[in-house]
Design goal:
Layout: H1 2-53, H2 62-143, H3 149-181, E1 187-190, H4 191-208, E2 212-217, E3 221-224, H5 226-243, E4 249-257, E5 260-267, H6 289-295, H7 301-311, E6 315-321, E7 325-333
Helix pairs in contact: 1-2, 2-3, 3-7, 4-5, 5-7
Length: 336
């Protein structure tokens, strides 16, 4: 699809370039011929005056006019050849450049199309999994002739877990759309309370895995939206807890950094595989599928964090340190 679109766009660019070049060279040819003919007429008049002033010369030599006309015809022929040559070169060079520019123009669209197709595929898969589980569990339960009240409660509990997973997925997808289209009201926000609030949200998950949360925050006031920044930091902390070792440590810090304020979340887990690093902020991307399934992740947390960072005018990036885990860094402006 994009190959044919690139060819069509190349032809469109080339048609514009060739038309412009043809009009330009034709205009130059007309002007050059006009100037040459004007020069000939001036030269002819001057020679005529000189000849007529000579003693015994009272007639105009016709051979001089013939020579000028022959030269004019040669000039026209040369101009035509030059015009054809320039347009052929423009056609060849323009074709190459048009193909290159068409590729550059379509590249973001193609990447967006691929990402959208992958997102649609992954989203349908993620939605299908809990729905399939619900259907299978209920079908198996209905086939049983005898069941106890405890069996019914267990089934309802399992169904509720799947419903909660669907609610979590839909909520994150809705949040992604919201942060992408709705501008936030940015104000001055104290850094230390932000980290404290995010740490408090993630504390139950940390306690469940016996992970120690360490805060190293320098007091400052940043420019952003408080609730969304708390959500962003809690996502990063929760992600570090999920993929870090049981009984490990997660450090949440903040300090001034070259005119900005830098938050960071560092875990001591295995880090992110190099092949997965370019895609970690993509929607529904999960590098280690088995590991992500074990942690109950959808691959939406980091993409949501990225959207929140962008909505706050901040930059979110990741640094992978071998042997010391992954470090996610949020660079945000100070309060204006």
């Amino acid at each position: 699809m994009f190959a044919s679109a690139r060819i069509k766009l190349t032809l469109f660019y080339l048609a514009i370039l060739v038309a412009f070049c043809f009009v330009l060279t034709l205009s130059i040819r007309v002007l050059a011929e006009r100037e040459y003919m004007h020069s000939n007429m001036v030269q002819r008049g001057e020679v005529r005056n000189i000849i007529l002033r000579l003693p015994g010369s009272n007639h105009w030599p016709n051979n001089f006019v013939d020579v000028q006309d022959a030269q004019a015809a040669e000039v026209r022929e040369q101009l035509n050849q030059d015009m054809i040559f320039i347009n052929v070169v423009a056609l060849i060079v323009g074709g190459v450049l048009s193909y290159w520019f068409a590729g550059r123009t379509l590249k973001p669209i193609e990447e967006a199309h691929i990402a959208q197709a992958r997102f649609a595929s992954d989203a349908s898969h993620e939605l299908r999994t809990p729905l399939t589980n619900l259907r299978l569990e209920n079908e198996v339960f209905l086939r049983q002739r005898h069941f106890t009240e405890d069996d019914a409660k267990e089934l309802i509990k399992s169904n509720l877990e799947e419903v909660q997973r669907l609610e979590g997925l839909s909520s994150n997808l809705l949040a992604l759309t919201q942060y992408g289209h709705t501008p936030l009201q940015l104000t001055g926000v104290a850094a230390k309370p932000l980290v404290a609030a995010a740490t408090k949200i993630a504390q139950p998950s940390a306690d469940a895995k016996r992970v120690t949360l360490v805060q190293q925050v320098t007091a400052a006031t940043v420019y952003g939206h408080r609730d969304s920044l708390v959500q962003l930091l809690s996502i990063l902390i929760d992600n570090a807890i999920k993929y870090g070792p049981e009984g490990g440590e997660v450090t949440v810090g903040g300090r001034p950094d070259e005119g900005y304020y830098l938050f960071w979340v560092q875990d001591n887990g295995p880090g992110v595989d190099e092949k997965d690093q370019p895609f970690i902020f993509d929607r529904l991307y999960r590098g280690d599928k088995a590991r992500s399934s074990a942690t109950g992740g959808y691959g939406l947390g980091l993409s949501l964090a990225k959207a929140i960072a962008t909505a706050n005018g901040a930059e979110l990036r990741m640094r992978n340190t071998k042997g010391t885990g992954a470090c996610f860094m949020l660079r945000i402006p100070f309060n204006k």
